[in-house]
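Renewal narrative, Specific Aim 1. Our central claim is that a sequence can be written position by position from structural information alone. The example that follows is taken directly from our test logs and has not been curated for this report. It begins with the structure tokens describing the chain, in the order in which they were read.
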């Protein structure tokens, strides 16, 4: 391989390595974003469950007060 061809090859190999590092960084970012979205969805579901339980307890207390008042 000629000296010029070797330099061109080395430059392309370095650029390919840089792009692979960028790809890996974006892949890691996407993985973290997915985990964050899953955690957020789980927390939202938990919050809705807590809300629903509190609403049902409030309705039961209201019914008990109405029965006691009669």
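The sequence written for that structure reads:
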């Amino acid at each position: 391989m000629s000296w010029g061809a070797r330099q061109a090859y080395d430059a392309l190999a370095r650029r390919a390595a840089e792009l692979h590092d960028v790809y890996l960084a974006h892949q890691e970012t996407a993985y973290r974003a997915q985990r964050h979205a899953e955690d957020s969805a789980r927390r939202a579901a938990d919050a809705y469950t807590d809300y629903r339980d509190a609403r049902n307890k409030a309705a039961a207390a209201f019914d008990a007060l109405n029965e006691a008042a009669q």
